[in-house]
Design goal:
The chain is α+β, with helices and mostly antiparallel strands. The protein contains 4 helices and 9 strands, in the order H-H-H-E-E-E-E-E-H-E-E-E-E. The protein has helices at residues 23-63, 66-137, 143-160, 227-237; strands at residues 165-171, 177-183, 186-193, 196-201, 221-224, 243-244, 248-250, 253-267, 273-281. Strand 7 and strand 8 (253-267) form a beta hairpin. The protein is elongated, with a radius of gyration of 54 Å. Residues 1-7, 9-22, 24-33, 43-49 and 285-292 have low confidence and may be disordered.
């Protein structure tokens, strides 16, 4: 039997009393203290994060929320629906737009084709008329009279075919010729002698009945003549017929493509002299000579 020391008042000393706690109670107390310390430390950590860090934590929680996921799914669905509807609309109407554009283009082309065919037929008829008329009263030896005849024919065609008319002229077998040409909106008389073009501007031609030149003796330009020689040669190769030359360019007038109607005949007024008549058309009536 163990004897415990007593205090002065007769109580057992606490230091000598047996321990009332066992292992479980010790573990419980120790775990409680650790949880309390952790809670304290966590609160200190959160307190030390500051307002910005707390807002970041809240935002992260929002992006992970179900509301955000649902909102994102709905927004993406709407966007995809809009894109799909737009693609369907474009596909549906693109074919209609292309068809309409092709229809308008074909319509304009047909109008242009009809205009060209009709104009060429009219010029053909003019060639027939000139062949019959000039064969009776054209006298190339009377140069002034021939010049006035070409001028009047030009003024008539300037009204009938203003967008196509380039030149009205006539000539002989040796390549000499005379006629009227429109260049840069200015009407000029051209004399071709010995393979050279002599250009004389006709002043105020719409209000005169002949080409008024100033000065009469001095040409405005002198250039080599190549095209008219081949026009006359082609006309005589098809003597007595209305014939169109293949398109060509003249070295004296670079950058301009001509199509030329030709006819040839004998002139009663000058002892059956062989003469040719030509009508140049072009899509570019604003042409100018190149000075040599």
């Amino acid at each position: 039997m163990k004897v415990f020391p007593l205090t002065n008042n007769g109580m057992i000393s606490r230091s000598s009393a047996p321990s009332l706690s066992n292992d479980k109670s010790n573990r419980f107390i120790t775990g409680y203290e650790e949880n309390a310390n952790n809670y304290y430390n966590n609160n200190n950590d959160i307190a030390g994060l500051g307002m910005e860090s707390i807002e970041e934590l809240n935002s992260l929680r929002f992006y992970r929320s179900i509301n955000f996921c649902l909102t994102s799914i709905i927004s993406v669905s709407i966007l995809l629906s809009i894109i799909f509807i737009t693609l369907v609309w474009i596909t549906t109407f693109a074919a209609s737009v292309v068809t309409l554009a092709n229809s308008n283009r074909n319509h304009e082309f047909n109008k242009l084709q009809t205009y060209l065919i009709q104009s060429i037929k009219e010029i053909d008829n003019l060639g027939v008329t000139m062949s019959k008329t000039l064969s009776l009263d054209l006298n190339y030896t009377n140069l002034l009279r021939t010049e006035n005849q070409m001028f009047k024919i030009y003024k008539g065609e300037e009204i009938n075919h203003p967008t196509m008319l380039a030149t009205i002229y006539c000539g002989l077998e040796n390549g000499d010729s005379m006629g009227i040409i429109n260049y840069n909106g200015v009407v000029s008389m051209i004399w071709v002698v010995n393979r050279k073009d002599f250009w004389y501007e006709c002043y105020n031609h719409t209000k005169t009945e002949y080409c008024v030149r100033k000065p009469y003796e001095k040409p405005d330009a002198v250039v080599p003549a190549n095209g008219t020689y081949y026009v006359g040669k082609f006309a005589f190769e098809n003597f007595g017929k209305i014939a169109w030359m293949p398109s060509y360019t003249d070295a004296a007038i670079p950058g301009t493509v001509f199509m030329t109607l030709t006819t040839s005949f004998y002139t009663v007024a000058n002892n059956n002299q062989k003469v040719w008549f030509a009508y140049d058309i072009t899509t570019n009536v604003s042409i100018s000579p190149r000075n040599s």
